[in-house]
Amino acid sequence: MSKLIITAALTGAEVTREQQPNLPIAPDEIGSAALEVYQAGASIVHVHARTADGSPTQDKEIYREIQSEIARKCPVIFQPSTGGATWHTAEERLQPVELNPEMATLSTGTCNFGRDVFSNPQDFYEQAARMMQQRGVKPEIEVFEAGMIDNALRLLKDGFLQAPLHFNFVLGVPGAMSASVRNLSFLVDQIPPDSTWTVSGIGRHETALAMVAMVMGGHIRVGFEDNIYLYRGQVAQSNAQLVARIVRIAKEFGREVASPDEAREILGLKARVT
Ligand code: KMH
Ligand code: ZN
């Protein structure tokens, strides 16, 4: 079994400071949170930008600031979102890819997202995949529904993606696929054997699905984007607390945690130029 890659989804587009007072919002706060999760054991940070008033934004210049804050502080892999918020336009969503990050997310299908629709028509995800391919950005394929795997496999067949693919199964978003062990196991069965995968269990499902992924040889995402609680009814003080819990479980289970460079090797990323 490979070493465990832990991704910290630091901010997201939906969570507010009212819900989670420790949510990192400003670029320097996101940089500091990245350092903390790196010190706790994370090797990737999944990032959404916010404006000064806390609204989600896909502004390239804010992502650029975040990228340099993180790079100045620690060697984690910077993975900006191309999902943004449900109301962002396709053009807005693709802006952070222009910064040539090592990775970026790629959602390969449309689904309900709470009361909203997270819209990812074929034209959009083909354009996004092509842009990442041209810039050497490794996509993390975000799967909220099973058909999104079929769409990704079609992208692979049509030359928009290269193997090995890397998937993130996001389970438990209201309106999309639920966070059951049976669903996770089914999704893992659908992807090519040379793929890598991680899981994001939403809310109270975060730790349970993380433990299943730990045993199955998958990787794990935690963080305020997905879950704001450390224990039931107790908000976490930091993203790093959520990472530290996974590291403790991994230690007990006997699975080593990957450093950022080890994660780069597992995911087939080029070595980071410092
Ligand atoms: N905020 C969601 C609508 C991603 O980052 O790529 C989409 C999302 C996926 O968070
Ligand atoms: Zn996201």
Would you write up a description of this structure?
There is one protein chain. By secondary structure, this protein is an alpha/beta fold. It has a single domain (6-267), classed as TIM Barrel, CATH 3.20.20. Helices cover 37% and strands 20% of the residues. The chain contains 9 helices and 14 strands. The protein has helices spanning 27-40, 60-73, 90-94, 122-135, 147-157, 181-190, 206-216, 239-253, 260-267, and strands at residues 6-9, 44-47, 49-50, 56-57, 77-80, 103-107, 111-113, 116-118, 138-143, 166-171, 196-201, 219-222, 229-231, 234-235. The strands form 4 sheets. An 8-stranded parallel β-sheet has the order 5-2-1-12-11-10-9-6, sandwiched between helices. It has a two-stranded antiparallel ribbon with strand order 3-4. Helix 1 links the parallel strand 1 and strand 2 (44-47). Helix 1 packs parallel to helix 8 (239-253). The mean pLDDT is 97. It binds (5S)-5-amino-3-OXO-hexanoic acid (KMH) and zinc ion.
In short:
The protein is of the alpha/beta class and 274 residues long.
